[in-house]
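Provenance and format

Records in this collection were gathered into a single text stream. Each protein contributes a sequence line and a C-alpha cell line. The two records reproduced below are adjacent in the stream.
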Amino acid sequence: MESTCHAGQVPDRHRDPTVSVRPTADDKQAAAEALGEWGWTIGDALHAALLWLLDDPRRLAELERFRPPAKTKGRPPNNARPRGQ
C-alpha cells in the first residue's frame, strides 16, 4: 500500500484527519533524544513506522509486547463533591 505522501499527493486535513497519541513526557523526551541523534523527528519516525507496518502487517506481532493498555471509553466519573457542599 502506498501512502499519500509517497503517491505524490499532499495530505488534506479534511480527507486525512490527524491521528494523535499522548506518550508520557519521559517517553517523548527519550524518543526525541534517541531519534535526534539520527536526524529524525518523532513525527518522521511515527510516519515511517506506519509505512513499515503497512508493508507487512505481520510485523504487528513483533510490537505486541509494547502495546499500551486499552483506554477507557467515555468521560471519567465525576467524584467531585457538588458545588456549595
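Adjacent record:
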Amino acid sequence: MKISGHCYESSPLDKAVYLVLKRFRNQNNEDPTGVYFNKVLSILHQRLRSTFDLKLPHCWYRWGDEVVRRCLPHDVNWDHDYLRTTVSWDGLELHVEIEDHLELINEEIEKIIDTFPMSNIDRIVSEVYSYAPFDFQRSFRNIRGSLGFTNEIDICFENIHLDNIKKQKSIAESDFKSVDYNIPILHSSFRLWSESFDFLVNESKVDYETLININESFWFHFCYYLRLKQNENVPIDVIDHWKNLLPYDVKNRNNEIIHEVKKIIITGFEPSEEVSAIIKKRDDEINELISINDDLYDGEDTIDELKDRKYSYHSKIR
C-alpha cells in the first residue's frame, strides 16, 4: 500500500487517522460526523489492542469512547455547526510506505467502515458501548434513548414510551448502586436525579423538558469523573486541565439539577430529608452571596436573580 503525496515524519496514529478520513471520503463522497469518526477509531484501537498499540489518546465521556481532539494531528479539521460536527483531513497528504502494521491498520479500517455504515449510526455506537467499562454507561444510554435522544444532537419525541422510560431508569439505578464510586457530590447528584426522575415520570402529564434537563445534567456530572477514571494515552497536561476544571464543572451541573428540582417542588414534589438538605445547602450559599453583594454595594445593586440562576458551564460564582 502506498499513498502518494508530501512526506513528513508521522506516527502510526497520524497515518491511521489519515486513512480513516480518506477512506471514508473516497467511499462516501462526504466527510464523517464526529460521532462516527470517534467510534471508528475506538473500534480500530480495540481490535488492534492485542497485536499493535495504536496509542490512541481517548477517554470515555458523554457519547461513549471519544478521542482527545487536541492530541490528534493538527491537519484534522473539526467543523462544528448547530446540528452536527464533521471531521476532515485538511493538510498535506501522507506518504505511507508498505509496513506490516500499516497493512493491518488499513485492512481493519476497511472492515470497520464497510461493516458499520454511517447511515446506521446506532449500530456502531452500540458496538462501542458493548465494551464500556461500566454497566451503568450502557443502561444510562438506554435511558437517553428512551427519552428520544439519537446519537447526534436531535431529540425525537415520537419515540418516547413512558413504560420503557421507567424500566430503563430502574435498571440504570441498580447498575449505579452496584459500584462504589466513593464520590460524595456524585452521590448527592444521583439522589437528586433519582427522586425527581421518579416524580416526573409518575405525573399525569409528564414534563419531558424538565426530565431531560435533569437527566442530562446528571449524566454530564457523571462523565466529568468518568473521563478521569477511564482514559488511555492522554498527556498529563490534559489530565491536569480536566482536574483543574472538575470542581467548577461538577458544582455547576449539581446546581443545574437543584435548579430544576426546585421548580418541580412548586408542582408537588416532596423530596426526602437527604435531598431537602442538599437543596437547603444550596439556598444557604445563594443567600450568603446576596448578603455579600448587599454589603459591597450598600443594597443598590442586587443579584436576586441568583435565586433562579442556572449556572453556565464555566461560571466561577459559587
